[in-house]
Amino acid sequence: MGFNESRRCSVWLKRMPAPIRLRELIRTIRTARTQAEEREMIQKECAAIRSSFREEDNTYRCRNVAKLLYMHMLGYPAHFGQLECLKLIASQKFTDKRIGYLGAMLLLDERQDVHLLMTNCIKNDLNHSTQYVQGLALCTLGCMGSSEMCRDLAGEVEKLLKTSNSYLRKKAALCAVHVIRKVPELMEMFLPATKNLLNEKNHGVLHTSVVLLTEMCERSPDMLAHFRKLVPQLVRILKNLIMSGYSPEHDVSGISDPFLQVRILRLLRILGRNDDDSSEAMNDILAQVATNTETSKNVGNAILYETVLTIMDIKSESGLRVLAINILGRFLLNNDKNIRYVALTSLLKTVQTDHNAVQRHRSTIVDCLKDLDVSIKRRAMELSFALVNGNNVRGMMKELLYFLDSCEPEFKADCASGIFLAAEKYAPSKRWHIDTIMRVLTTAGSYVRDDAVPNLIQLITNSVEMHAYTVQRLYKAILGDYSQQPLVQVASWCIGEYGDLLVSGQCEEEEPIQVTEDEVLDILESVLISNMSASVTRGYALTAIMKLSTRFTCTVNRIKKVVSIYGSSIDVELQQRAVEYNALFKKYDHMRPALLERMPVMEKVTTNGPAEIVQTNGETEPAVLETKPPPSGLQPANQANDLLDLLGGSDITPVIPTAPTNKPAAAGGELLDLLGDLNLTGIPSITAYNKNGLKIDFTFERSNTNPSVTVITIQASNSTELDMTDFVFQAAVPKTFQLQLLSPSSSVIPAFNSGTITQVIKVLNPQKQQLRMRIKLTYNHKGSAMQDLAEVNNFPPQSWQ
Amino acid sequence: MINAILVFNNHGKPRLVRFYQHLAEEVQQQIIRDTFHLVLKRDDHICNFLECGSLFGGSDYKLIYRHYATLYFVFCVDSSESELGILDLIQVFVETLDKCFENVCELDLIFHMDKVHHILQEMVIGGMVLETNMNEIVAQVEAQGKLEKAEGGLSAAPSRAVSAVKNINLPEIPRNINIGDINIKVPNLSQFM
Fold it and tell me: Where does the AP complex mu/sigma subunit domain start and stop, copy by copy (chain B) (predicted)?
């Protein structure tokens, strides 16, 4: 040992041990038994790699980056290797470049500025003498080139697009696609190079050229028009592929280059769309492919499928379209589930345009509902709904209801909604419709969507002759099981509305059941008490019970008791309702019958929203959310029509008298409250009504704060010798107005003009139109019920101008 | 366009991960996990297509997968690709791997992850299909493999160079070796002597 050797030793000692090879690392990591162990190993190796990078040693950089990429795949951070990738790319060795470029593609993206450093390397490599290096550069640019890089290097790519080297040409074509995607303005630049792309013999080049042409046509209508002239050439290429016989290089399962055929078919689709000439030019070849393709293997089916899609999309003749749909129909019977799936998908797309042709395959489609495959079932369900029409609705519904019964929960909501929609459109009879709804509610009651409940209620209201039948069936349905909320909600509502029909046993459609008032109340109370009932459902039940107080005769006391119990319920909503219903019993008993009357037939406004004909302005009873108090009258529908007729058919909104609030204001008190913002400018008062001893005067005030508001105070007096009791005043105005009726001072007009009833009406008249009003008066006098309608037209101009 | 190509085994361990759009690392790993769970649930008699819009934030995307022994090959594509065509492409990919590795098995993919990437690169660029002819792909992969071998390969660089040099008279070693259009710069090996 001399000085030299000791120096050698120290040189040796300074160097770290060589970084382990990739294989070794992988082997080591695989021995880890837990995630924690693996993490530890990886961290150790990362530290080693980091130090190795710091040494700037060219020899090991390659294997270090390879290891880094492996660890990155497993999910560990590898960003500290980004710069190293760039150094590898700059190296002269092919091995280095290869790993470097791979690393760049996996670890880098255009969000890091670092990537721009690659531009120069790529530029040099695009002109490298080795084609594989050029290939690497094209590949990387085509994967992750940013817009700046693409702009800088587009020229090089365009040059390579014209080379005779097919290996490079095909890569250049895909690189060009990426460039166009990043910088669309550069598309023009590649146009000349596309001139003889299709003359190539090499299938790889042909394939990528078609991809490039497809991209250009999809992006620019001008390009699309320009490339239409290629249709004959494409048709020729396709023909050669089909007719050429066995060619071992391109054969896949007996078919010549199926991938290229599919690509060309797709491009033909884009070129033939909306263009008669192009479509005609391809008719023959499409028919040929459709009839000659071997379908025993997947490749043949892929081509057939693409052909069908093309036929359906271009302006093909009807014979061809029928052929296409029949092919799809055959696909449906194929054993291969993938084929069935794509067939259903395409039929779904074509059912709008070629409805009749698809109808022919209805039975096969319905059979697919029983398939084991979830994806296929979903497609079949969507398609079945699209195929329902007036002729087949009974049969289809039977199948769909059976499907609803047995399908997975993820389908039930959509299926139920679909059935409701279809039933609404095509129901052959009301009875059938109600039965179908019942069936859905009982089979999938908990999956029905929330917005279906008001729709169903509206539907039931409209089928007047079926009320007894409906309520009976609903009652029977929830007797056994009241856990399905939508079902219980609809049932409660109906029982509340039509409970009288239920106990009177009036059903015509089927055997009427014997049920007593108490039994009905039993079931409603069970719903109220049950833990399974949602808050909304409880609300329905309570309101239903309340409504029965006017329909039932023997059990009013029981109802009163139930209502008063819930006055102290923890549920705020229930409590409020109960308290207000209590008040209805106590202080406003005279209004109860009118308020709780049978709902009128609701007109449909939208298909989805709950029906709303009765617009309530001002204070409606907050508790009565679902049932809006009807306008008065025993035949509400007729009355509404009368009111409408009187005003010459113009739209008016009948106004509901306000529900009793908890503190009914005294007449004087009301006026005093209003004095604050009133403008007492002496508008003359009028006599609105004077008949049979009943006189009603209107006095007017305009609001200071809001010039569109007029406040009318009515005074009703009685000049006969007997009191008028249960007096109710109602008013209606044209639609451009809004009306608010506050509480009356009382409901009794004493005889001999010894007292009056006062009530305040606020009118909002934003369009300053002439005020008109129709009024309706009901009261009891001399032992009989009196009712009258009148129109008030003599409003002074100062009251509304 | 192909959005992503994933290969993982029956336990969800990734064997090949290639995304053709940029996603953060955590997102990538999440997608791998979610895809694995989605695909694991599928029985064998169910079709090979899955809608997966929620994974990638677009409703257009589908997962097309094939199960070979212990490995799942999953391609995530948008509507511009033919579903049946992609199924065929997966088959071509697997057959190509088989040719390149001679009866490929999972271990081959584990220990030669970089080679698998290189093979894939000859088939798909930027999410678009480049070449579907198996023989063509294999030929190109082998040619590049030869290039690498001549340079000493990924891991063998220093040791092969050392053993080669040991047998030759040092002063006669050229600085550059040129074979055809391949340039190899001979590293400075004096410290090994």
Answer: 1-147
